[in-house]
Design goal:
Chain lengths: ~700, ~170, ~120
């Protein structure tokens, strides 16, 4: 007999739940800010929680479902007009949803104790209670609700005693168990294991068999959904489904159970589907109209694809690129000029198509930065609250696209920088006032593409980094020595925050973490192939700048020769290349290091053969070539013997243990099958070779 | 200790001694190709090569275990390409490849503390075949993460002052 | 070999239904993510059974059933609604739009298959 793989489905539930939570968070944050919630929003909120409840029950997350049920009920009362939205409800709802998230995490990891759950739930209910005018009614409802919990979930268990109640209340009030519970529960009888599942009749039914519901027959008319009115009777707004329908049949639709409707017994049952349609007798219900009424969840035009499939596609393209370069190299060696040029021409065509294909696949992996930004408003709001600070969060460049594979590795460092800015950067409203700044601090996050890189900036108008403190701490920890401390520029001092072990927080707050610090941020960014730097001005604020490569996989590069070895330089790093005149080379400082004087700029020269420990052909700089490269704001001039051709390379992962190799950022398979090493200009700049 | 899957060994020579690796770990045997050197690598890491499209490090076992600290590389030098348990491709330089042998892997002698050029922790054991003694290498141990960290002379723990200017 | 269409906006739920159906001897299962997608897919093939969730964006289950019943191909096709509540509301609406039967979630594969068996044999 087939059985569901609960763990697999719980994982899927978790993924879907995360998306739903994000939607809910956005809605609630807006509601909190505006102090109001319109009907459509309430409905949307209701539907989201309803889905969470239903789906969690399907994966046996009983306690989560029970709590979701409470929230759903609350939202239902908002939805049907029984309760009017008040400003303070937004906060309560946010709290409720946060609790839901917490309970989910705990239940999934098996850490959720019933007693804790019970307390949490009751505390939430109590807060909800305060919004209801009729407290007595609410209390009764609460009792009923608790019991309803118990039989809301039709869960088979392996427990051979049959079903047990899902929450604790049941066992406390056995005499109050409504009859209907037996519909859903099996017997607590060891001898009847087959009744573990709810009886089939309760899970399935045929509409034709329904006789007890009286309806006025209306042929193929579509009945709309009904809304509960304040007097608890049910009426139906009907909508004709086709233009031919000339009858304007709006009839009230009273079910037999209508007279029995009392707050106690029926409110939980009066869960109708939302009815966003208005009564338009002649209006043909065409799909576009229906589609517009609902807040479009663009699920119908997109599909979820496993990232590994896209990686597979990228690999295939990578192989194409390699094969192309092999063919190209071979053609180069041909003697017959005519064949050679004919072939080259056709090969160029293929090259173009490969590039287009590559761009298409890459664009599949690209998602808007919005996905990254959207996580922040909630976190910032919560943290600001905790710290008693006022923060305004702004973001720019939501539509700028980033490789999906990077998002995971990026979110944590960004989160950390933001938290740091909130904790140490932005001052309390009081201090800000004293400093003549607006009480509300600003945190700005922006994304843009430039020079083949993705540039992300996080800027705050807080107090800036206390350079003296940081330098002192670095000195204390032995990261720098006295001489360095003395001669460092402000820029360099600011960068000290990325040194390991540096946490200038006197009291480690749990906001930024226990000195887990900026060094982890830097290494995480480096893992993505990027760099991070910080600029700060005391009293005015700080700006963190992260530069990431746009693509992880294919690179436009230049082949260069140093002695007998060849290396590859990424085109995106190259600013210009020159054959220097002797007068352009100067030697400065004690060490007589070489610099290139180019248009009034002094650019340090780096001899690649020194870095790579290889033989070289030219000694004098003016005999070889200088390639000026840049990384973020710095420039250096690389000395090489010759440059060869330019081509596309597929970046292949280099064993991680080679990551510390000087100046090397990656490897590629050349046209002749050998491995080519790709120069990492950031690394060369960083390490000051 | 990893599970021994098959009884077949590929044997090869490092200096005068015969060693063996489980055949299931071997992916390819090739003559010494053009190896791209990596700056700053340890002495026994000759560089990287293209192994079935993957960038694979080449490790000279002879240098690694001090059997021959200055070997010569000719077109008769062999590289055995192995795939580790965690799916990494690595090339091992050896002197020459000998035969395939069937070993009863439950009848191994434990490696002695002394006497073999390679320390016992890197060995699965010794197999006696007629009058030969085959030393069976524990490839996963030789190439495990910790060992691999020694690939580069620049270890990750070195801290540098993170400077903003070149 | 009956061709079955499952319409639900939850990836997880669709997978569960598909799994249950596959295990129960119904390999030909197609998925749709909401009413609009469901209607489109229904029009592009001939399904012997449609199982649909109610609460979905863009077009909910009841509306979908209304649209389906308008099409001659699907005037009499068995349609099952997947519902979270077994109450008179749901029953009334289901009956009104012309659904064949309902199945409450959460369900176990066995029950779903039994329900499918029943409606397919009518």
């Amino acid at each position: 007999m087939a059985v569901f793989d609960i763990n697999k489905y719980r994982q899927m539930f978790l993924e879907e739940a995360e998306d739903i939570f994000e939607t809910i968070d956005t809605i609630l944050l807006e509601a909190e800010e505006s102090g109001d919630m319109d009907n459509e929003t309430v409905n949307s909120l209701f539907r989201s929680v309803h889905t969470l409840k239903g789906n969690s029950a399907s994966v046996e997350l009983a306690m989560f479902a029970a709590l979701a049920h409470e929230l759903e009920f609350f939202m239902d009362r908002l939805r049907n007009g029984e309760l009017a939205f008040e400003e303070s409800m937004a906060e309560l709802l946010i709290e409720g949803v946060d609790t839901l998230k917490q309970i989910l995490e705990m239940e999934l990891s098996g850490e959720l104790e019933e007693s804790f759950f019970h307390t949490t739930k009751m505390s939430l209910l109590q807060k909800i209670e305060s919004f209801s005018e009729d407290a007595q009614e609410m209390v009764e409802l609460v009792i009923l609700e608790e019991e309803k919990d118990d039989f809301g979930l039709l869960l088979p268990t392996d427990d051979d005693k049959g079903f047990g109640p899902i929450s604790g209340e049941y066992s406390e009030k056995p005499e109050e168990m409504p009859e209907s519970m037996e519909e859903y529960f099996g017997l607590f009888d060891d001898e009847a294991p087959q009744s573990e599942l709810p009886p089939f009749e309760d899970v399935f039914g045929l509409f034709d068999d329904l006789e007890e519901i009286t309806m006025k027959e209306a042929k193929e008319e579509m009945f709309g959904f009904f809304d509960e009115l304040e007097d608890h009777s049910i009426s139906v707004a009907t909508v004709s489904s086709s233009a031919e329908e000339s009858d304007e049949d709006h009839f009230g639709f009273f079910m037999e159970i209508a007279p029995q409707l009392k707050p106690k017994a029926s409110l939980p049952e009066k869960r109708s589907e939302p009815n966003p349609k208005e009564a338009h007798p002649e209006a043909a219900v065409d799909e576009s109209k229906v589609a517009k009424k609902f807040k479009a969840d663009t699920t119908s035009n997109s599909i979820r694809v496993d990232l590994s499939k896209i990686d597979g596609l990228m690999n295939n393209i990578g192989e194409l690129v390699i094969a192309h370069s092999m063919l190209s190299q071979y053609i180069y060696t041909m003697e017959d000029q005519k064949t050679k040029s004919d072939l080259s021409e056709r090969l160029e065509l293929i090259d173009r198509h490969i590039r287009e294909l590559q761009e298409s696949v890459m664009s599949v992996r690209m998602v808007p930065m919005e996905t990254v930004f959207s996580k922040f408003p909630k976190v910032i709001r919560d943290t600001a609250k905790k710290l008693d600070k006022k923060i305004d969060f702004r973001s720019f460049g939501e539509s700028v696209e980033i490789d999906k594979a990077m998002i995971e590795g990026l979110t944590d460092p960004l989160m950390h920088i933001v938290r740091n800015g909130l904790d140490h950067g932005i001052e309390s409203p009081e201090r800000r006032r004293k400093a003549g700044k607006p009480e509300t601090g600003t945190l700005m996050m922006s994304a843009e593409q430039a020079n083949g890189q993705m540039i992300i900036k996080i800027q705050d108008d807080g107090g800036g980094i206390n350079l003296a403190k940081v330098t002192a701490k670095a000195l204390e920890n032995g990261v720098i020595d006295e001489h360095q401390a003395y001669s460092m520029s402000d820029e360099e001092k600011a960068m000290l925050i990325f040194a390991p072990g540096l946490s200038t927080a006197d009291a480690v707050t749990d906001i930024s973490g226990r000195g887990v610090g900026m060094d982890v941020v830097m290494s995480n960014i480096k893992k993505l192939g990027g760099i991070v730097k910080v600029d700060t001005e005391e009293g005015y604020g700080s700006t963190f700048t992260i530069a990431l490569p746009l693509t992880l996989a294919i690179l436009d590069g230049l082949n260069i020769r140093v002695g007998t070895e060849q290396f590859i330089l990424p085109l995106s790093a190259i600013i210009e290349s020159i054959k220097p005149e002797e007068e352009m080379i100067k030697q400065i400082g004690d060490t007589q290091s070489e610099v290139l004087m180019l248009r009034n700029e002094f650019i340090p020269v780096v001899r690649l053969h020194t870095i790579f420990n290889v033989e070289y052909e030219h000694q004098k700089l003016s005999d070889g070539l200088l390639i000026v490269v840049r990384s973020a704001a710095q420039k250096i001039a690389l000395f090489v013997d010759e440059f060869m051709n330019q081509q596309q390379f597929v970046i292949k992962p280099l064993d991680r243990n080679f990551r510390n190799a000087r100046g090397i950022g990656g490897a590629t398979v050349r046209g002749d099958g050998t491995i080519g090493l790709i120069i990492d200009t950031m690394n060369i700049l960083d390490k000051n070779y | 200790m990893s599970i021994i899957e098959s009884n077949q060994l590929l044997t090869f020579k490092l200096g005068n001694e015969t060693y063996g690796i489980q055949i299931s770990k071997v992916r390819e045997i090739l003559t010494y190709p053009t190896v791209t050197p990596i700056p700053d690598a340890s002495r026994w890491v000759k560089g990287v090569i293209n192994l079935r499209g993957e960038v694979a490090p080449v490790i000279d076992l002879r240098v690694r275990f001090n059997i021959n600290n200055d070997p010569v590389y000719t077109n008769r030098t062999i590289i055995i390409a192995v795939k580790t348990q965690d799916a990494r491709m690595i090339g091992l330089v050896v002197d020459e490849v000998s035969d395939m042998e069937n070993a009863e892997l439950d009848r191994l002698y434990p490696a002695p503390d002394m006497g073999t050029s390679i320390a016992p922790e890197y060995l699965k054991g010794l197999f006696k075949k007629e009058d030969k003694m085959i030393v069976i290498l524990d490839i996963d141990r030789i190439l495990d993460k910790e060992e691999m960290q020694k690939l580069s002379r620049q270890s990750p723990e070195t801290t540098h002052v993170l400077s903003a200017s070149a | 070999m009956p061709k079955i269409l499952i319409v639900d906006d939850s990836n997880m739920l669709r997978d569960m239904v598909k799994y249950a159906l596959n295990e129960g001897g119904y390999p030909d299962v197609v998925e749709a993510v909401d009413g609009v997608d469901g209607l489109e897919k229904a029009k592009s093939a001939v399904f012997d059974l449609i199982v649909t969730d109610i609460n979905m964006p863009n077009m909910n289950g009841f509306d979908l059933i209304v649209e389906l019943r308008k099409l001659p191909t699907y005037a009499k096709t068995p349609i099952l609604t997947l519902t979270t509540e077994k109450n008179d509301d749901m029953k009334a609406k289901g009956k009104a739009v012309g659904a064949t039967g309902w199945i409450v979630k959460p369900f176990v594969p066995e029950q779903l298959l039994k329900a499918v068996g029943i409606v397919l044999s009518r």
